[in-house]
Amino acid sequence: MGRRLRTDGRRTAGRAPRLALRAALPVLLVALALVPATGQRPEGGGSPFGGGRPPGGEQPFVRQTPFGGGPPRRRPPEPDSPPPAAGPAVPAGEFTFTRMMYSSPYSYGRRWGGAWATDYPEADDNFIVGIREWAGTNLNVSGRPERVEILDERLFDYPLVYFVEPGFMELSDEEAARLREYVARGGFMFFDDFWGDAEWQNVTEQMKKVFPEYEAKELPLTHPVFHSYLDIEEVVQVPNIGNAMRGITSEKGGVTPYYMGIENKEGRLVAFFARNSDLGDAWEWINDSRYPVRYGLAAYKVGINVVIYAMSH
């Protein structure tokens, strides 16, 4: 669980994350550069997202049997199955990956009644392993992801919250005020997996409820968020696995990908938007040999950099 956010915008007993062990990263990135463009991992070795193998070992990728052995699909539980109980927060780690639960009355029928649950929990679990075992930071990351509702007081325990498919999100005035308070107290919002003009319009409308004085803008690749840990030098459109297998990267008319953000009056980035991209699907399917490594690597680099930026600014 992260350190609780204070009313002055700082984290209680907070400290900048210790960004060590960078020497291992070039080894892994060289290995990735040698992976065939088809996205197939070499036989043998261990997966960087499974088995606990540290970066830099011999043959760090393994070809794995696709989930279920069949075509790519979502894996919802039985219709009447409730989501797993969150339970009490476990005080482990200075950073806990936290998914935001929100109302989406106009979504097209995601499991458990909300678009917020897309790719959950596989994407969250895999992304955590990526930070803990692949990235090589000394950031103390909790081994269990959390999910939290906007009006839950636990929101202030988590320095970063992740929104998926916010193109369907509908905020009440009370929720918008709570998110504004959350950011004022040092929190950071990460938005992913929304496509096309209609969904972007909804995202901007919801953000106007939170920040009527600010506008989301495209971020240049010179922005510190793209160099907070790894160097990101291009905007990559990350598709879902079904589209990737067909050689398609866009959907719903969202042809051009953007990395966008909202900065407060002090110039601190407080919200990051992966527009016309689906980072979460790459996290979810990273161990599936059908998913191209190019997109998986791009998704992890962006996610890791956003986390490090949020924890150090």
Brief description of this entry?
With 313 residues, the protein is of the alpha/beta class. It has a single domain (24-63, 109-312), classed as Domain of unknown function DUF4159 (Rossmann fold). Helices cover 26% and strands 11% of the residues.
Descriptive terms for the model:
two-stranded parallel ribbon, 313 residues, alpha/beta, 11% strand
Number of domains: 1
Hey, roughly how much beta strand do the residues contain? 5-15%
Extract low-pLDDT stretches.
Answer: 12-91
Tell me, briefly, the overall form: globular
Give the N-terminus to C-terminus distance in angstroms.
18 Å
At CATH level 2, the architecture is 3-Layer(aba) Sandwich
What is the CATH topology?
Rossmann fold
Helix content: 25-40%
Arithmetic mean pLDDT: 78
- Major sheet: size, sense and barrel closure? 5 strands, mixed
CATH superfamily: Domain of unknown function DUF4159
Number of helices: 7
User: Could you give the order of the helices and strands?
Assistant: HEHEEHEHEHEEHH
In the sheet with the most strands, the strands line up as 3-4-7-6-5
Rg for CA atoms: 19 Å
Describe the structure.
The structure is a single chain. The chain has 313 residues and is of the alpha/beta class. The chain has one domain: Rossmann fold, CATH 3.40.50.12140. It is built from 7 helices and 7 strands; from the N terminus they run H-E-H-E-E-H-E-H-E-H-E-E-H-H. Helix 2 links the parallel strand 1 and strand 2. About 26% of the residues have low confidence.
